[in-house]
Structures are given as structure tokens and as C-alpha cells.
Amino acid sequence: MEEAERLGRISFTSFEEVYGSGHPNTVTRVHEWAVILEKSKRFQEASEMYQRAFRDSEKVLGHNRPETANYIRNYENFKRREQARGEIMVDDLTMS
Q1: Which of 16, 57, 60, 94 has the CB geometry, 3.0–4.6 Å to 68, for a possible disulfide?
Q2: Phi-psi region of 95 (alpha: psi -120 to 50; beta: other; left: phi over 0)
């Protein structure tokens, strides 16, 4: 998993440096980074990245895009897994 983390961080930071945070490819890398962080049991960081992925997707692509819905759904699923593990989430997502 360490290698996946290293490569995920490189991919995420590279896309952000080259394209900026307002680019669809960067949003995808943010989401992929969230998945890697969760698998690495870095739950607080994963939560932040899942939230960033859907918020950035709303800004970049719009609320009604399938990608945005997917990122929101993935974050909700993450929260359910956290609850099943007995983790207490500090942040709560409010859908509007």
C-alpha cells in the first residue's frame, strides 16, 4: 500500500500543479487520492479529500453532472463505512 500511496500522491500533486484545482482531471485525482487514503486507514484525510472531490466537482462540472453525483455517493458510502467501524466523523455533509 505504501507504493500506491506514493504514486497516488505524485499523481494528485502533479495534476494540481499542472492543471490547477479547477480542472476536471484534478478533481478525478482528488477522488482517487481519497480512495487510497481510506484504504491506508487515514480516515480523516480521506474524508477531507472525498469532500473536496464533490465540492470541486460541483464548482467545475456542475451539480447535475454524473461525476458529481458519483463523488457525493462515494462520500456518503465512506461515511457509512466509518459508522460501521465505529468512527466518529467530525464533519457532516449537508446536501442541499
Answers
A1: 57
A2: beta
Residue extents of the structural domains in the chain: 2-85
Output the CA–CA distances (angstroms, integers) from residue 67 to 54, 72, 81, in the order listed.
Answer: 8, 9, 21
Task: Pull the grid cell for residue 54.
Answer: 464533490
Tens place of pLDDT for every residue, the chain, 96 residues? 678 778 877 877 888 889 888 899 899 999 999 999 999 999 999 999 999 999 999 999 998 999 999 999 999 999 999 888 885 554 544 444
Q: How far apart are CA 66 and CA 82, in angstroms?
A: 24
Q: What is the pTM of this model?
A: 0.78
Q: At a CB cut-off of 8 Å and minimum separation 6, what does 24 contact?
A: 60, 61, 67
